[in-house]
Sequence to fold (364 residues):
Amino acid sequence: MKVARWKLTLNREKGILKKSVICVWEEIFMTLSKKANPGISMLRLVLSYLVVTCHFYAVSADSFRYYLMHLAVPCFTFLSFYLMANKLDAPSFRMLANRVWRLFLPMCGWAFIYFAYYKILCYTGLSDKNVSIRDLIWQCFIGHSYNWSLWFISNQIMVLIIIWLVHLIFRSNVGRNVVLIILFGLCIISQCEGWQNILLPHLNLELSTVVARIPEVLPFACLGIFVKKAETIIGSTYKKITSNYKLYMAIILLFVPYILHEINVESVVGLGYGGWKNLFGALALSIAFVIMPMRNIKVVDFLSKYSMGLYCVHMMVGESYQIVLSYLGIGFGRTALDCFFIWAISLIIAIIIGQIPYVKKIVL
Fold:
């Protein structure tokens, strides 16, 4: 009788596992979001790889590859607010709360995961990074402590609140546009004059880095909203443009970042994302993929959903990858191939976590 029950239980587990595998297979190859823009989905995957290269690829600071890697954060910000622009036209506390919660949950969840990870590494002698409860608190709410790469999430929350307040206070489109243009201009002036650096001595390290990057990131959010509004205004005209002309425009825009890199533009005071070069480079790259005529590729649409999870887990994968290589006596060359391995493993882990009920919210 016990054997029969065991077989029944095993068969049920196999059935559940089979059903889960079939669901993933169907989601990858047989379903496609009706709202999916294939260009945006492709750009998300490209940007997620560029984020990995930012942290693990050895390249000269004056090279085009270095400049291209650092367009990832600006482009992600542009896309985020480009896709959110219509919702901001009718601002509500519920909309803000839902969006903030969707960003805060991964930041807080991964704070605990990385806390346990570094505790284990420290206990086993594989790392000397001894994290404390204070570090955990800062990581949960600011995203910048022992896993400093998650500063982007808390920065996005701050920028979102600023733009949401503008849309809440000013009900007319003219008033909103004027205020956003003023904020855009003030941010550019702050970058040139270094106004944000005045705050740095009065804030601790965790908070200062996130706050000081608001003037650098906010302009990309404004651009995303402006482009979406322009797209709405010229919608009928834009639809008449043939796919061939859209392709030609996209190709031209893809060359803009390279041209900007070759132009000698004076540097600005900041933390790496300010200046006209980053502004126009990210704008051109983002618009190129938005307008690029592409076929809907179901695999790309599926994988791009896990760009947030990939971003959250890639630092852990990268450090573990280095530990394994060190154990095997292999040097970490910081090559593009190393970055690809880290990117692929991170993506696989994000997909696996995404199949677990409740927990999947930290990767989607």
Remarks:
- The chain has 16 helices and no strands.
- The radius of gyration is 22 Å.
- The longest helix spans residues 93-124.
